[in-house]
Design goal:
About 20% of the residues lie in helices and about 30% in strands. The protein is of the alpha/beta class. The protein has a single domain, classed as 4-Layer Sandwich (Metallo-beta-lactamase, Chain A). It has a seven-stranded mixed sheet, with helices on one face. Strands 7-8-11-12-13-14-15 form a seven-stranded mixed sheet, with helices on one face. A two-stranded antiparallel sheet has the order 9-10. A hairpin with a 2-residue loop joins β7 and β8. The longest helix has 11 residues. Bound molecules: nickel (II) ion (NI) and manganese (II) ion.
C-alpha cells in the first residue's frame, strides 16, 4: 500500500486495486489521477479545507464519497455517489474495513454566505492490506483516543497546528494514548493561524513511536 501526502490533511492511498483520497483540499500540488482513476474519497467533515475538491473529483472519476449522512445528503444533491456512515460504525469494503470514529470539532459548509449543517465531524480507521491507518480529521485532544490503543494502529495521521485542532503538546498526548507504530503530522503551516514547530513534535513523538514528516507529494510504502 502506498500513502502519499498532498499537504494540509490530504492523503492519497493506493493499494488492493483501489485509489482513494482523504480530505482532498490541496494547498499546492494536486495528485495526478489520470493513470488509476479514483474509487473513493473519505471526507472527515464539511469545512472547505477538507471537503476541498470532493464534488469535482467525485463527478469526474465516478468516485464514491464516504462521509456522514448529512454531508452525504449535501453531496447527493450535487449528483455525487455516497456511502454514508455514522461514528462507531464499520463496513467491509472491497479494499478493506473502514470504521468511522469520533472527532471533537464542528462541521459545516459555507455556501452563498449561509452556513449549511454538515453532520458530525469524524476520523477514519482504514484497514487494508494488513495496515491500519488512522486519519484523525480535525480534532482536539479527547479521551476517545484512548480507545484507539486497542486498534493496534500502524499509521496515525494527526493534526498538530493548534487553533482549530490539537497543537504539538496535545498531539504528543494523543500519541501516548493511541500508541501507533508510526505517526505523521498534518494540518500545520498551511495558514498563519496553524503554524507549528513540526521538528519539536517529531523530537517528542520519537520517544513513543516512529515519526515521519512527509513533504508534499512524498510517498511512503507500507
Ligand atoms: Ni475543520
Ligand atoms: Mn481544518
Amino acid at each position: 500500500m502506498r500513502l502519499t501526502y498532498f499537504g494540509h490533511s490530504a492523503f492519497l492511498i493506493e493499494g488492493n486495486g483501489v485509489t482513494a483520497l482523504i480530505d482532498p483540499f490541496f494547498p499546492s500540488v494536486k495528485p495526478d489521477l489520470n493513470g488509476n482513476g479514483l474509487n473513493y474519497i473519505f471526507v472527515t467533515h464539511g469545512h472547505a479545507d477538507h471537503l476541498g475538491e470532493t464534488v469535482d473529483l467525485a463527478l469526474k472519476y465516478d468516485a464514491v464519497v464516504i462521509c456522514n449522512p448529512e454531508l452525504g445528503h449535501y453531496l447527493s444533491k450535487k449528483g455525487v455517489q455516497i456511502h454514508p456512515m455514522q461514528i462507531g460504525g464499520s463496513f467491509d469494503f472491497t479494499f478493506g474495513k473502514v470504521k468511522m470514529v469520533n472527532a471533537t470539532h464542528s462541521s459545516s459548509i459555507t455556501e452563498n454566505g449561509e452556513i449549511i449543517y454538515a453532520g458530525p465531524p469524524c476520523g477514519f480507521l482504514i484497514h487494508s492490506e494488513g495496515n491500519k491507518i488512522y486519519h484523525a480529521g480535525d480534532t482536539g485532544l479527547m479521551m476517545d483516543m484512548k480507545l484507539l490503543e486497542d486498534e493496534s494502529i500502524d499509521v496515525a495521521l494527526l493534526p498538530i497546528g493548534g487553533n482549530y485542532t490539537m497543537d504539538v503538546d496535545d498531539a504528543i498526548k494523543a500519541v501516548k494514548m493511541i500508541r501507533p507504530s508510526l505517526v505523521i503530522p498534518m494540518h500545520y503551516d498551511t495558514f498563519p493561524l496553524i503554524r507549528a514547530d513540526v521538528d519539536k513534535f517529531a523530537e517528542e513523538a520519537r520517544k513513543f513511536c516512529n515519526v515521519k514528516i512527509l513533504n508534499c507529494k512524498e510517498t511512503i510504502v507500507l
